[in-house]
TrEMBL record:
<dbReference type="InterPro" id="IPR015424">
    <property type="entry name" value="PyrdxlP-dep_Trfase"/>
</dbReference>
<comment type="function">
    <text>Catalyzes the cleavage of L-kynurenine (L-Kyn) and L-3-hydroxykynurenine (L-3OHKyn) into anthranilic acid (AA) and 3-hydroxyanthranilic acid (3-OHAA), respectively.</text>
</comment>
<dbReference type="InterPro" id="IPR015422">
    <property type="entry name" value="PyrdxlP-dep_Trfase_small"/>
</dbReference>
<comment type="pathway">
    <text>Amino-acid degradation; L-kynurenine degradation; L-alanine and anthranilate from L-kynurenine: step 1/1.</text>
</comment>
<keyword id="KW-0812">Transmembrane</keyword>
<dbReference type="GO" id="GO:0043420">
    <property type="term" value="P:anthranilate metabolic process"/>
</dbReference>
<dbReference type="GO" id="GO:0005737">
    <property type="term" value="C:cytoplasm"/>
</dbReference>
<feature type="binding site">
    <location>
        <position position="133"/>
    </location>
    <ligand>
        <name>pyridoxal 5'-phosphate</name>
    </ligand>
</feature>
<protein>
    <recommendedName>
        <fullName>Kynureninase</fullName>
        <ecNumber>3.7.1.3</ecNumber>
    </recommendedName>
</protein>
<feature type="binding site">
    <location>
        <position position="267"/>
    </location>
    <ligand>
        <name>pyridoxal 5'-phosphate</name>
    </ligand>
</feature>
<dbReference type="InterPro" id="IPR010111">
    <property type="entry name" value="Kynureninase"/>
</dbReference>
<feature type="binding site">
    <location>
        <begin position="161"/>
        <end position="164"/>
    </location>
    <ligand>
        <name>pyridoxal 5'-phosphate</name>
    </ligand>
</feature>
<keyword id="KW-0378">Hydrolase</keyword>
<dbReference type="GO" id="GO:0019805">
    <property type="term" value="P:quinolinate biosynthetic process"/>
</dbReference>
<dbReference type="GO" id="GO:0097053">
    <property type="term" value="P:L-kynurenine catabolic process"/>
</dbReference>
<dbReference type="Pfam" id="PF22580">
    <property type="entry name" value="KYNU_C"/>
</dbReference>
<comment type="subunit">
    <text>Homodimer.</text>
</comment>
Amino acid sequence: MCCGKNKYSANIRVYLIPFLILYTIKIYIRWELEILIEKKNALSLDEQDVLKDFRKEFFLPHDKMYMDGNSLGLLSKRAERTLLDSLEDWKTLGIDGWMNGNHPWFTLSEKIGEELSELIGALPDEVMAASSTTVNLHQLVSSFYKPEGKKTKILADELTFPSDIYALQSQLLIKGYNPEDHLIQVASSDGMTLSEEDIISQMTDEVALILLPSVLYRSGQLLDMKRLAKEAHARSIVIGFDLCHSIGAVPHRLSEWGVDFAFWCNYKYLNGGPGSVAGLYVNNRHFGKRPGLAGWFGSDKNTQFDMEHTFVPASSAGAYQIGTPHVLSTAPLIGSLEIFKEAGIERIRAKSLQLTRFLMELVQQELLEFGFVIGNPDEDSRRGGHVALQHKEAARICKSLKELGVIPDFRAPDVIRLAPAALYTSFADVYETVNVLKRIMQEKHYEKYENTREVIA
Ligand SMILES: *Cc1c(COP(=O)(O)O)cnc(C)c1O
C-alpha cells in the first residue's frame, strides 16, 4: 500500500517523459515545417517574378536585407553610369556641357520631367524635375494659395510629414494669417490613418487650398486622391498632393483626376540618390500664370538668355523652376528612370502589393503572438508600398534588426516601417526578415538596447 503512490508516479514518469520529448519534437518539426513551407513558397514566388532580373542592376548592401527603399532607395548601375557621364561632360566640355553633353544640362530637367510624367499619369509638359521637395511645396503653395473673401484657410491633416506643416505655416504667415486658426488639420481617430469622409466634411467654404499626402509616411495608408480631388473641385477648392511615398510604387492618374498640383522627392522609391533633385506637377489649365517664386530658370527657354527684366514664364510646369538646375543631383535619375520605364509602373505595383501581402501574411502567422500589430490598412486599394508594424519596443527592435542584417526604418513612437522595393527586394528577403524578427522576439535580443531612437531614424 505504501508503495502504490510511488508506483503510480513511476508510471507517470515512464509515460510522461517520452511523451513530453515526442511532443516537443513534434512541435519543433511542425514549426520547422511551417517555416520551410514558407521558405519554399518565397523561393517559388521569386522564381515566377517577372521583375526578378532588375535586382542584378542594383548595388545591394552585402549580406543584408534592405527594407528601407522608401527612405533612401539604393543605387543602380545605370544611375551610377549617368552620374559619371555628367561628371565626364564637365571634365571634358566645361561650360559646353550645357548644350553638348551626353545629356545636355540645359534641357535635363524637362527631359526628366517627361520621364516622370508616366509615373504620375500626367502630360509630359505638366511635370518638372526641380529644386527640393520642400522648396517645391513652398513654390506651389505660394502660387496656388490665393485667399479671397471668406476663403482664406488651408486644409491639411494631423498625420502628415512635419516639413509640410512647417511650410504651410510659413505660407500663412507670409500672407498675414495666423496658422493657429487658419491651418485646419484633419484629425485621425486611431493615430495611424485618416478617413476620406472626415476630410471631405472639413472642406468648408472657408477653405482656399487643400494639401494632403497620397500615402501617409508612417502608416502607409493610400488616400483616394480621385475622390478627394472631385469633392474639392465641387466646392471650388484647389487641391494638391505630396507624392513622396507613392511615386515609383503606385500608379497615379493626376491629369485625369484633375489634381491641381503635386510634388515629391526622387530619392525614395525612385532611387535618385541622397538629396536628389525633386519633382513637381502642375495641371495644364494653370499654365501661363506667374509662379509664386519666380526665378530665371522658370523663364520661357527661348528668351531666358535675353536677360530682360520682364519675366516671361515658360508655358509649362517648367515655369515653376527657380534657379540653375542641380545637375549632379539630377543625373542619377536619367539611369534610374530608364529602369522604371522598362519595368513599367503597373508591374511594379503588382509586385509591390504581392511583396507586402506576403510580408503581412508571415507577420500574422509568426509574429502576432509577440505583440506586433499591423498598422497599415489591409485592402490593396488603401495601401502604399510599405508595411507599418507597431510594437511598444519598436525603437530597440529596430536596433536588433540592424545588428542582425535587416535594415528597417523606425518612426516614432512605435512604428517599424518595412518597405520591400519591387525592383530589388526578393520574397526570400521578406521571408528572412520575418525569420530574424521572430528570433529577436524569442531570444529577447532587443533587451540589450535602450528603447530610444537614433538621431536619424
Ligand atoms: C521624405 C519626405 C519629404 C522630404 O522633403 P525634403 O525637402 O526632400 O527633405 C517631404 N514630405 C514627405 C511626406 C516625405 O515623406
